[in-house]
Amino acid sequence: KGNMAFTGKYEFEGDENYDDFVKAIGLPSDKIEMGRNCKIVTEVVQNGNDFTWTQHFPGGRTMTNKFSVGVEADMETMTGKKFKATVKMEDGKLVADFPNYHHTSEICGGKLVEISTTSGVVYKRTSKKIA
């Protein structure tokens, strides 16, 4: 596991429990439809403990979170809500608590695997490396 383990560009490949999860976090129904099987491209630049995490949505919208492991940072959720979070590194996974869910990201077999958990609902999103 190298230092630059997360750096790369990843394209959405599949997910599990999308509907249950987005309903549980209160995503409005128009946003739920828009996000379903959305070919999001996630671009990660890792420099030691510093990360720039950008999501490119179809239609040209992008969202970027910059953070350093162990340091509180200003972040934004997929619904555009701003919050402060401290991202930790645990067993090679990035772990963060968003306002209404717990999120982990890891590189597993060359894929970016993100797991979000809220009140018992586990949402898993897998993206394949494209660059």
Notes on the protein architecture:
This protein is mostly beta strands and 131 residues long. The protein has one domain: Calycin beta-barrel core domain (Lipocalin), CATH 2.40.128.20. It is built from 2 helices and 11 strands; from the N terminus they run βααββββββββββ. The protein is globular.
Secondary-structure class: mainly beta
Tally the structural domains: 1
Q: What kind of sheet is the major sheet? A: 9 strands, antiparallel
User: What is the terminal-to-terminal distance?
Assistant: 18 Å
Strand content: over 45%
> What percentage of residues falls in helices of 4 or more residues?
10-25%
Characterize the quaternary organization of these chains.
single chain
Low-pLDDT parts are none
- Element-level helix/strand string: EHHEEEEEEEEEE
Task: Report the average pLDDT across residues.
Answer: 91
Strand order of the largest sheet: 4-3-2-1-11-10-9-8-7
Tell me the total number of β-strands: 11
Q: CATH topology, anyone? A: Lipocalin
Architecture (CATH level 2) name = Beta Barrel
Number of helices: 2
Radius of gyration: 14 Å
CATH top-level class: Mainly Beta
CATH superfamily: Calycin beta-barrel core domain
